[in-house]
């Protein structure tokens, strides 16, 4: 898939922008604070319903504006055109449109747009909390496994109900129906994650990390399903029963896929804390590039790739590696930076360059 047209209104420092994006490579240059990253946030909104930056979504709205809007036309690799829109008011109200029609379900919008993004905070995927690593896996499965979204939502509903009953001090009999829901949907989620993580993703990651960090040796991937014991319905049921006294005391459910995590260990750096910040960024880059590769293989569609502040985030050789790899593919790529070395842009055989300054975006 690829963006053909992008319209942005009142997002951060951008009052209005209308872009026709090149199907392969798009380079956004300009000084710090000009609005380059805001363009990537607009694309991210259509794929995740939020920005990759922290903070409330209302912070995305340009100061004094009543709200923001993003509209895009997306051409699918297998044919077909989607017209997607999202509008966010300053007080947090959201409006969605899919192919000219209002849409209430966020999932209907998000499933039509896949954006893989590497940005200055991406190292948190490796060094940050487990929820970021779960989100990385689950977003991939959302696009790969048709039944994942409905199953994940049913698990979340059961989890909320069980936690509410724990806070009320409910008897075990009242928890029983929700335990069965958690076990049914939770084990299914765990299996999907394990099949994806240890299957196509592991193969792609081993190849990319060997290229990016050969000095660290071989790679080992581990996935924690979120409970101790057998990774089965019986094992999860036993974990819920064993932890029930603690759950009553803490008033929340402490076992399940909502507590899952995964790790990447290297032969010469078996502990995450042994990685430098630069190495964490390269591992995160490897995760992004692997995700792109696997989504293409699993769905038949190339996701759109965003690389924010590439020259500052990566050294020249690794920047060139990422760009060369993406240019050899058919993935549409959007790259931002304050400046680009001639050797890096030498990889650009075809594409478009835009200059961004004070929220104004023009072809360069």
* Order of H and E elements: EEEHEEEEHEHHHHEHEHEHHEHEE
Coarse morphology:
globular
- End-to-end Cα distance, whole Å, is 25 Å
Proportion of strand residues: 15-25%
- Biggest sheet: strands, sense, closure? 6 strands, antiparallel
> How many domains?
2
Strand element count = 14
What labels describe this entry?
14 strands, 2 domains, six-stranded mixed beta sheet, 44% helix, Glutathione S-transferase Yfyf (Class Pi), Chain A, domain 2, globular, Rossmann fold, 364 residues
Written overview of the protein:
With 364 residues, this protein is an alpha/beta fold. The chain has two domains: 178 residues, Rossmann fold (3-Layer(aba) Sandwich), CATH 3.40.50; 171 residues, Glutathione S-transferase Yfyf (Class Pi), Chain A, domain 2. Helices cover 44% and strands 23% of the residues. It contains eleven helices and 14 strands. It has a six-stranded antiparallel sheet with strand order 2-1-4-5-6-7. A six-stranded mixed sheet has the order 8-11-12-3-13-14, with helices on both faces. A hairpin with a 5-residue loop joins strand 4 and strand 5. The longest helix has 41 residues. The chain is globular and about 65 Å long.
